[in-house]
Design a protein that fits this description.
The chain is of the alpha/beta class. It has one domain: Decaprenyl diphosphate synthase-like (Undecaprenyl pyrophosphate synthetase), CATH 3.40.1180.10. Helices cover 44% and strands 15% of the residues. The chain contains 9 helices and 6 strands. Bound molecules: farnesyl diphosphate. Farnesyl diphosphate (FPP) binds next to helix 2, helix 3 and helix 4.
């Protein structure tokens, strides 16, 4: 990363970066490993990536770890992802706590077993006072999130709403909209991720498979971000 990009980062120019962590399965197949082994390496890269972005001074980081559509994967893969996630709450996510990072889970927690849900809620509560945020989208879908926000507003008695009302009822209410969304694995789509929040996000797609993503790749995405002119619909 060049000095200009580093200086801009220090000034908080990227406030929020989000990742669609795609390619674990293909990475594993290429290595002759099982898909679950791919997810395990993916989880390690998730921790490294979140920590690196934090070190760069990016105060909000979001990762897409499990979508509302991922339940339709083969049962053993879903079970393995749940187990990995649960173990991670005990280990890596505790380490984020030591770095004073607030962990927020995006998505409907009511579907998880009581014990797992309690662990998630405890981690959120324990880190509530920290201002740097790591959002982990788990059982998350952008359309679901919007419907959930609208239903909450209806329950609160609203009959007409503003954009601000909606934004403040999304799972991401504590974070600004993402400046940059990075998707690994070569596909160029959002896959139901941050649909409302991505209205003016810069999108960056790379063929690198998630388990191969390293600090140089993140630097590259950040450098690319700084080469763009953000117009937010205006003529500049
Ligand atoms: C997409 O790759 C990845 C997932 C559905 C799971 C993402 C999970 C992790 C990175 C690890 C677990 C995360 C935490 C927070 C502990 P894919 O399986 O669709 O890959 P493919 O497109 O190559 O098949």
């Amino acid at each position: 990363m060049d000095d200009k990009a580093r200086a801009a980062l220090k000034n908080g120019a990227i406030r929020h970066i989000a990742f669609i962590m795609d390619g674990n399965g293909r990475w594993a197949t290429k290595q002759g490993k099982t898909r679950n082994e791919g997810h395990k390496v993916g989880a390690r890269v998730f921790e490294e990536t979140a920590s690196y972005c934090h070190e760069l001074g990016i105060r909000h980081v979001t990762v897409y770890a499990f979508s509302t559509e991922n339940w339709s994967r083969p049962r053993p893969e879903v079970d393995a992802l749940m187990k990995l996630f649960s173990n991670y709450i005990d280990t890596a996510m505790r380490r984020f706590h030591e770095k004073k990072i607030r962990v927020v889970f995006l998505g409907d927690k009511s579907v998880f077993p009581r014990k797992l849900r309690a662990k998630m809620e405890k981690l959120e509560k324990d880190s509530e006072s920290f201002s740097d945020i790591l959002n982990i989208a788990f059982n998350y879908g952008g359309r679901d999130e919007i419907v959930n926000a609208v239903n909450r507003l209806i329950r609160e008695g609203k009959t007409e709403i503003t954009k601000e009302d909606l934004a403040s009822h999304l799972y991401t209410a504590a974070s600004p909209d993402p400046d940059l969304i990075v998707r690994t694995g070569g596909d160029m789509r959002l896959s139901n991720f941050l649909l409302w929040q991505s209205a003016y996000s810069e999108l960056y797609f790379t063929d690198v498979l998630w388990p191969d993503l390293d600090e140089n790749d993140i630097d590259e995405a950040v450098k690319n971000f700084y080469s763009r002119k953000r117009k937010f619909g205006k003529v500049l």
